Amino acid sequence: MMHEIFSFVRGPMVWIAFTVFTVGSLYRFISMWRLAKKKDSVVFNYFSFFYALRSIGHWIFPFAGVNMRKHPAMTVVAFLFHICLFVVPIFLSAHVIMFKESWNISWRWLPDPAADIMVMIVIVCCLFFWGRRIFLKEVRYLTSVSDYLILAAVAAPFISGLWAYHQWTAFSAVMIVHIISGEILLMIIPFTKLSHMLFFPFTRGYMGSEFGAVRHAKDW
Amino acid sequence: MTKQSPANIATIPDEGIDKGGQRLTTDQITRVISRHLEEEGGARLKIYMETCVHCGLCSDACHFYLSNDHDPKFSPAGKVKQALAPIIRKKGRVSVDFIKKASEIAFTECNLCRRCVMYCPFGINIAYLMLFIRRICHKLGVVPQYIQDTAHSHSATMNQMWVKEDEWIDTLHWQEDEARDEIENLRIPLEKEGADIFYSVIGPEPKFRAQLIYQAAVIMNAAGMDWTMPATSGWDNSDMCMYTGDEEMVARLKKVHFEAAMRLKTKRIVMGECGHAFRSVHDVGNRYLGWKMSPLSVIHAIEFYYELFRDRKLRVRQKYSIPVTLHDPCNVVRGGGLHELARYVIHETCSRFVEMHPNREHNYCCGAGGGVINCGPPYTKKRESSSKVKADQLADAMARGAKVIIAPCHNCHSGLEDTVKHYGLDMEIKFLGDIIYECIYK
Fold first, then answer.
1. At CA A75, angle to CA A65 and CA A132, rounded to 5?
2. Is residue A176 a part of any domain in this protein?
3. Which residues constitute the domain of residue A113?
4. CA pair distance B130, B128, nearest whole angstrom
């Protein structure tokens, strides 16, 4: 039984997850593009690549903006979190080896102890975000159940991955949890608030264009 | 017992909201909003609402939040949560009371200053979302009475203050007469075809602050400018309809303004020291008319004064010696990037300048802009208590010697006057034009 579930989540489910993620993201991009063409032509008319990149550049560089300097802990955590969140799944040796075995392609991977630390960083960052939602009244006020669920969805593959890697108790079952939660995370990206991953360059870029080209002002 | 913050004390009822609400039913509200969402709720609305991760980082941008004891209800995202999120979630099926509350939030608890846009990592335009609510309220007829009155004036008279055409012309003649006591042969040229400059002002100038037109005439005269003002509609560049959500009127107003300048075959429009009018002419109204940028060159008074000093058209007789500080108005600084030019003019005309902090794009709003002061007496107390952080900022500049606040914007001017009075600050508020008028060789 366990074996069957494992081969399903390790096999067809992976394809499903990646397909939902890619097709879902494409669908979101295309439908949003068409909606914008229809009702927000202003976005296309005023979009300026130079000012979009100027704004994005300032916001993906730690402490480049005033608000980032106002919240140093949040800035450090947010950057560490996002970097580790992307780097670990892509460059984890176990993940690369699976690609090697399946398709005979591979790339450089992280040393396991480094990945181990980065996973723990992601988990600690999630705890930090959780704490913000509980203890900071301006964040608590905005927080709804879905915000906790999304946070849990992000943390789950990392916690279970760490667990399985260290072969703590019932690790083979946890391994299945790890795979499923990773797949769920991938699939919900286009359809939840995690879609900021897709749309960040556009929202930031559009605002950067308006502030830069029309209003001749900074937006950071 | 819950602590009642001063911002929640409503003493004067608002008939615009109360009576407007009485006329509505839930069905009507649902019908209007769902049509509005269908027609105007596009990708920006969708993405802004869907990608906001509720991080709360916009809070520190907002003077309402900072001034009201960090009450999260006043944070930018907090206002969206209260006034817009339920509308989207319930697809417009909201109650009359909800709409009344949403109207109060969108009209009187946000100055549309766009400071939070600079604090949101994603660049979510919360001012756009607040305007989206205001437009819904406009369509539902639930708009604060005082600002709605200015919008009515706009649509009936094409100016903000119910000024009739003969009153406008008469005011200019009166100011010309007055100015001739000081400067012989000074003219306020009306209807001069082919002049270099079309000078436009906001409705309140002829109504309450006619001396500003006098001063402008003196400055134009001293600099030897070839300028004119129209005798017809189009002299008023202000635009409260932009803030009530009446976009159709915005387009009509700007059309009349641009067409007056073009009818007179002037080369460019120079605007008086007003912020929201600049936003309307430079950034908003042109869009509703289908112009990417304004159809003829438009510059704000700050830039005009800057040119006059840069080109040595004006000469300073004696620099203004009382220490000054500068309030950067949101619509010309965050909305026009004129902060360094304003400083240039100040350095040319004043001997001591004290920066307030934060400044430039990060300056705190005066608390009056975005049509908030135009919502009138029912909200004055809330506006004053919500300017506490502004008062602290001014007090700090005062402690470092500043005695005069230069505010090159009418709304800021009025807002700062209330703040200074309410918090007992010993400071005077002036326009750049006031300072220039005092200092130059006439």
1. 125
2. yes
3. 46-214
4. 5
Q: Are strands B227-228 and B197-200 parallel, antiparallel or unpaired?
A: parallel
Calpha distance B216→B226 (Å, rounded): 13
- CATH number of the structural domain B324-433: 3.40.50
Whether A148 maps to a domain, the answer reads yes
What are the pLDDT digits (tens) for B427-437? 999 999 999 99
pLDDT confidence tier of residue B9, bands split at 50, 70 and 90 = low
A215, B336: Cβ pair inside 8 Å?
Answer: yes
Provide the shortest C-alpha distance from residue A161 to chain B (in Å).
25
Instruction: Give me A75's structure tokens.
Output: 């800035």
Angstroms from A213 CA to nearest CA on chain B: 10
Statement: B158-310 belongs to CATH 2.30.29: no
Per-residue model confidence (pLDDT) at position B10: 53
Candidate from A70, A147, A208 with C-beta closest to B123: A208
Q: Which chain A positions have a beta carbon within 8 Å of B52's beta carbon? A: 193
* Integer Cα distance of B143 and B134 in angstroms: 8
Domain map (residue ranges) of chain B: 9-143, 158-310, 324-433
Check if B158-310 and B324-433 are the same fold.
yes
**CA B233 – CA B164 distance, rounded (Å):** 9
Test the A interface: residue of B55, B116, B306, B389 with most A CBs within 10 Å: B55
The three-state DSSP-derived secondary structure of B405-421 is EECCCHHHHHHHHHHHH
**How do residues B173-226 score in pLDDT, each as one tens digit?**
999 999 999 999 999 999 999 999 999 999 999 999 999 999 999 999 999 999
Of B56, B293, B336, the CB nearest to A136: B56
Interface test with A, best of B59, B62, B118 (most A CBs within 10 A): B118
Number of domains within chain A: 1
Nearest CB among A35, A42, A147 relative to B287 is that of A42
Residue among B77, B118, B292 whose CB faces A219 most closely? B118
The pLDDT tens digits of the residues spanning B124-147 come to 999 999 999 999 999 999 999 999
Question: In this structure, is residue A123 part of a structural domain?
Answer: yes
Q: Position of tokens 């004390």?
A: B9
CATH number at residue A202: 1.20.950
Give per-residue pLDDT as tens, A141-183: 999 999 999 999 999 999 999 999 999 999 999 999 999 999 9
